[in-house]
Structures are given as C-alpha cells and as structure tokens.
Amino acid sequence: MWFKLTFRKWPQERQLEHVRAKGVSLGSRLKEGRSVFVYMVRNLFVQIVFKNDQEWKEVENLTVFNSLEKLNSYLEEDFRLAFNTVH
C-alpha cells in the first residue's frame, strides 16, 4: 500500500527509472498509431508512451493504475471507443 502512494508522488523521471529497473513488461499495443507500453511494478500497472515510440527515449505520457481491475476497465473502454470510431 505504501508503495502505491509513494510511487505516485515521485517525479516522472524517478518513476521511469523504477519501472526500468524493477518493472516487468506486459507488452505493447497501438493506440491512435502510437506504441503504448504496459508494465507491472509490484502491485501497480504503468502505461507509458515514449517519444518516437522508442522505449529508450523520454516519456511523453505515463499513467499509473492501482489495480489490474482498473487497468482492464481502462483497456476495455479504450477498445470500445476505438471500435465505435472505426465502424
């Protein structure tokens, strides 16, 4: 629990360092033509968009999810929105 609170308060650069050092890559996906990378760090899930879609570049956007349920809800809603705009 303390880790969740602490991690969110860290500067983005420190969050990225921790994700790179301790995180487990869960995969990547395309969103609006951009590569989005998802990691698990302890009991948190982190979604990152990097500059030029390259993992060794700077972060453009970093989103933290407190639980797998919240990550799944977000991904399901994102999929629904993407599907509705295509059809």
What does this structure look like?
This protein is 44% helix and 34% strand. It has a 4-stranded antiparallel β-sheet with strand order 1-2-3-4, with helices on both faces. The model has no long low-confidence stretch (mean pLDDT 91). The protein contains 3 helices and 4 strands; from the N terminus they run ααββββα. A hairpin with an 8-residue loop joins strand 3 (44-50) and strand 4 (59-65). 11% of the residues are buried. The protein has one domain (2-86): Viral Envelope Glycoprotein, domain 2. The protein is an alpha+beta fold and 87 residues long.
Keywords for this structure?
single chain, 87 residues, alpha+beta, Viral Envelope Glycoprotein, domain 2, 4-stranded antiparallel sheet, 3 helices, 34% strand
